[in-house]
Amino acid sequence: MSATILGLTGALLVGIGLFGLIVHPTALRKLLAFNLVGAGVFLIFGVVARRAAAAGLPGDPVPQAIVITGIVVAFAATALAATLLARLSEPGEQP
Amino acid sequence: MNELLALALAFPLVLGALFIVLAASTRAALFGFFAFGLFLALAWVELEAIDVALTEAAIGGGATGLLLLRLNARMRRTVSLGQPAGPQLRIVAGLLAVLVTLVLGALLLALPDPAPSLAAATVEPLPTLGISNPITAVLIAYRALDTLLEIAVLLIAVVGIRVMGAERGWAGRPVPWPAAEPSPALVFLARLLVPAGLVFAVYLFWVGADAPGGKFQASTLVAALWLLAIMAGLAPAPRTGGGWTGIALAVGPLAFIAAGAIGLAATGSFLAWPEPVAKPMIVVVELALAASVVVALVMLVAGPPEPEAGR
């Protein structure tokens, strides 16, 4: 039951992030909203892992390990986007 | 009882997300993101995924928040990708968001019961690897190719950031942190936390074989401590381009590929660990990967090189 509550929270995070991604005109806020979407997707995947508890483990380790990889890759993408934004904000650059 | 705890975590998460999206000030939204990241890490603890909670607290909340806060301070003007949304667009976006949320929620409630699981298949070969934390085993053995590609993604991002500053010189130090004198409290905190944190990182690295922890969690901790030392003015940001940082970035993927080739020669498949030497090989590869991850994370937060003074 508690896993389902957190899963629905993940679905809400995806929705809220998607709204921010569309509505905000500024690039930095879009980046922030996109990270919210990612957090929601990871949380849903975590709930899928938790539901698959078996063999004495509290959750399926395969989705959990993939979420760890996903968090690191999302960070790398955010860092690259942030550098592009910093460059765009310099004088003489047009988005 | 657990439902109460889950609800107690769900409320701040949803409210935090709403605050991040709706706050008028970008700076306020960024600070909201830090708090959100901590609650998200607690939600991962509630889902019994301690390894993910450690990664989320360090990278998802901490490093991403720090990166975006630094970006916000560095941007010379707001970059807009369009006009502010009118009422019509807001309504359509709201409806779309509600629709996506409802579909995801319905899918979650419709998941099969009992859920399909790879847990048993993961546990069975653990003794031959000398590892008893199944998540570490998935990352370094069963899905080693994913981990190899992950470090490749980190390297590509580092190269991408370096290219951003290429016309000002391939090598150099990144943009300095706010030039003002760091507060004495921050300097004291850095002096106190860095040595203790390094000891804890070594512990996390080693214990990852048998308990929550591992090379990623330990590397992110070391990277965070390094960034703290940079912010407190105790250490300079690493130079991009050549030198020992280049070697550190390359050693992880190269060691991983070399180990994969040994596996190919010994057992006939790439990245398979030959049984008698599986554990020592894994430790060597993880050490090399940890060095690469630490340098890559610090460089990703520090940003592209700036022209050297006097050029």
Automatic annotation (TrEMBL), chain A:
Keywords: Cell membrane, Membrane, Transmembrane, Transmembrane helix. Its main location: membrane. The keyword Cell membrane applies. The keyword Nucleotide-binding does not apply. One of its GO terms (cellular component) is plasma membrane. It is found in: Cell membrane. It is a multi-pass membrane protein. Signal peptide: none annotated. InterPro entries: CPA3_antiporter_subunitC (IPR050601), NUOK/Mnh_C1-like (IPR039428). Pfam families: Oxidored_q2 (PF00420). The chain crosses the membrane at residues 6-24, 31-53, 65-86. Belongs to the CPA3 antiporters (TC 2.A.63) subunit C family. This is Na+/H+ antiporter subunit C. It comes from Ancylobacter defluvii.
TrEMBL record, chain B:
Belongs to the CPA3 antiporters (TC 2.A.63) subunit B family. Residues 188-299 form the Na+/H+ antiporter MnhB subunit-related protein domain. Keywords: Cell membrane, Membrane, Transmembrane, Transmembrane helix. Pfam families: MbhD, MnhB. This is Sodium:proton antiporter. GO terms for cellular component: plasma membrane. Residues 13-76 form the MrpA C-terminal/MbhD domain. It is a multi-pass membrane protein. It is found in: Cell membrane. It comes from Ancylobacter defluvii. The chain crosses the membrane at residues 52-71, 91-111, 148-165, 185-206, 218-235, 247-273, 280-302. Its main location: membrane.
